[in-house]
């Protein structure tokens, strides 16, 4: 099992989907669950993050999905989630970093992405991504007492700023295979 956390706009979803395809694993995204909940409430992801600071049912719903995966026997998952490393400790844990401007451009260019707050230019998108990440990190520290950005939580830290999906997935697969051989 692989869990991918990381900076917003780092390509977690793209990498996770590709890895799942290559390994014939099931892809699971808490970000998609979160955006779906936001859309159902007529909100964007940042607004739902703020609401999640007071409405604990939102995180509980998402966390329960991860707990169920962790309690199951199927290890053939690629988890795209900022908290999967915490809820699924038996996973190979990856943290994807990215330069803020690269992340913002990726999000602006992704026409399939929904639930993002409005942004008229690159700098505004940088700010909304950083704000959302800060709100999430603050909430996760408050609820769980953990820091998602602490490198010691992960088996692999990978900078996605200047590499292709193919280069990144090949590097991850090599590291994952080495991990499996040492477990």
Structural write-up:
The chain has 183 residues and is α/β, with parallel strands linked by helices. It has one domain: Rossmann fold (3-Layer(aba) Sandwich), CATH 3.40.50.300. 56% of the residues lie in helices and 13% in strands. The protein has 8 helices and 5 strands. The longest helix has 23 residues, at 122-144.
Quickly name the level 1 CATH class.
Alpha Beta
Largest sheet: 5 strands, parallel
Number of domains: 1
CATH topology: Rossmann fold
Short description:
The chain is of the alpha/beta class and 183 residues long. The chain is built from eight helices and five strands. The chain has a five-stranded parallel β-sheet.
Task: Name a few traits of the molecule.
183 residues; alpha/beta; Rossmann fold; five-stranded parallel beta sheet; 5 strands
Summarize the topology.
Elements: E1 2-6, H1 12-23, E2 26-29, H2 30-40, H3 45-52, H4 56-71, E3 77-80, H5 84-87, E4 92-97, H6 100-109, H7 122-144, E5 156-159, H8 165-182
Parallel strand pairs: 1-3, 1-4, 2-3, 4-5
Helix pairs in contact: 1-8, 2-4, 3-7, 6-7
């Amino acid at each position: 099992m692989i869990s991918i956390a990381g900076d917003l706009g780092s390509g977690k979803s793209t990498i996770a989907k590709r890895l799942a395809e290559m390994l014939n694993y099931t892809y699971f995204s808490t970000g998609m669950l979160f955006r779906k909940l936001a859309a159902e409430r007529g909100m964007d992801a940042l607004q739902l993050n703020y609401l999640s600071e007071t409405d604990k049912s939102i995180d509980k719903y998402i966390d329960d999905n991860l707990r169920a995966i962790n309690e199951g026997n199927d290890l053939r998952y690629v988890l795209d989630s900022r908290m999967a490393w915490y809820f699924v400790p038996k996973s190979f844990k990856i943290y994807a970093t990215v330069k803020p401007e690269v992340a913002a451009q990726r999000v602006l260019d992704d026409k399939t992405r929904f639930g993002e707050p409005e942004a008229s230019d690159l700098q505004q998108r940088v700010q909304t991504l950083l704000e959302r990440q800060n709100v999430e990190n603050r909430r996760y520290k408050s609820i769980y007492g953990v820091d998602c950005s602490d490198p010691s939580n992960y088996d692999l830290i990978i900078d996605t700023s200047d590499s292709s999906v193919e280069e990144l997935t090949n590097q991850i697969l090599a590291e994952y295979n080495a991990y499996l051989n040492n477990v």
